[in-house]
């Protein structure tokens, strides 16, 4: 423990911060449809997801043990590189949260790691093949696989029967909760462990623990707590986009989407072709939207989401590379990056307060497209109304002008 | 560069089959329960539909249990 240097402590704290953003960024994956269809109250949904994430974090350390293997050359990786990678990942996560777009936390982390590694050791240290087969291809495949499955499931479900009533309502509610629980659990086992793996990697790189050892208990505990806390705080902006912004879901569709997501995530991790939870859930939500007759997908929101996905890797890589080259300047460089990270996070949070989205308005307020339309109507409506009144005043002046003299007339009357 | 098309294909097939199967099974189960609701409203019973419904739900529960088993044993 005597070799537990300052930079190592900074890396551990930053990794936990990333875990926290990962938690609240990905709450939407498990709970967005459950919340938007009203199967669970927002607060209860995030609490349940947080608890299952925590449980999932303790289930195994397999993912943690294999993290980052194969993607970058981990021999000679320094704690500063990991720190720079985390800075890139956190900032991208916060930025996408601010605009309410679901994007993959794993891609952000991978991007940061790749960027920092390139800046530190050059392009040779990154395995391009692994990048394509493990990151890019799954990113394209995930929404297609989950979307098609969920589209067909929705279509069949509506085909088999459109029973209505108390039993139906309760049934789909229970089904949604169960499948959302599975997604939460799978998320906990995968994503909390990514952070554990990162911290362990940093501890090994810093010489604090022996290479090849399992994550220490305090690492498992703190990583599990961080992701659960983040999940409980809830990324309401992303939940709103996923649950309401992409399409309008009925309970039956929500169930189909969530089941498809859970199946695709489990099948992919079981068969060794890892898919991003975020991409899977987004795809399955859109599939469920298209599966119902008369269902629509808001392609403007979907397009913005796809753009965010495409940008995730390069953007996080750029920030990671930039952070790495600054930390290379020395200890004060590292301190500068840390200050920059805190300042940027604070700024993003400050901007987010301008329009607060939380558990009270996550369902009530409709997504961006509707908001844009209402804004447009609000902007367009007054001029015609003004024209009409002007036309009217030409013929009948009295009714229009009457209210304005009446209002000023009141205070003098009260004074007397 | 070697893309593992077999793994991708099997993920695709398994996801599709499992999702559609599960959702249809669940919908059938709910139809059965809803039939009981209607029968009860008329003062009758729908034993066959209810039995079928519980068989469907049991199958779904088994699928969920298998999912948890996969998470715990092989993440």
Number of helices of chain B: 2
- Shape descriptor of chain A: elongated
Strand content of chain B: under 5%
Q: Span between N and C termini of chain B?
A: 26 Å
Q: What do the pLDDT scores of chain B average to? A: 80
Q: What portion of the residues of chain A fall into strands of 2 or more residues?
A: under 5%
Give the largest interface. A-B, 57 and 39 residues
> What gap, in angstroms, lies between the N and C termini of chain A?
83 Å
Number of domains of chain A: 2
The parts of chain B where pLDDT drops under 50 for at least 5 residues are none
> Ranges of chain A with pLDDT <50 over ≥5 residues?
365-416
Overall number of strands of chain B:
0
**Oligomer description:** heterodimer
Give helix % range of chain A: over 70%
Report on the structure:
The complex is a heterodimer of chains A (416) and B (75). Chain A has 416 residues and is mainly alpha-helical. Chain A has 2 domains: 6-364, no CATH class; 381-415, no CATH class. Chain A is 77% helix and 0% strand. Chain A contains 17 helices and no strands. Chain A has helices spanning 6-36, 42-59, 62-66, 79-98, 105-121, 128-160, 166-205, 217-233, 236-245, 251-270, 277-291, 299-327, 331-352, 368-380, 382-395, 398-401, 403-415. In chain A, α1 (6-36) packs parallel to α9 (236-245) and α4 packs antiparallel against α5. The N and C termini of chain A lie far apart (83 Å). Chain B has 75 residues and is mainly α. In chain B, 85% of the residues lie in helices and 0% in strands. Chain B contains 2 helices and no strands. The interface between A and B is large, with 57 and 39 residues.
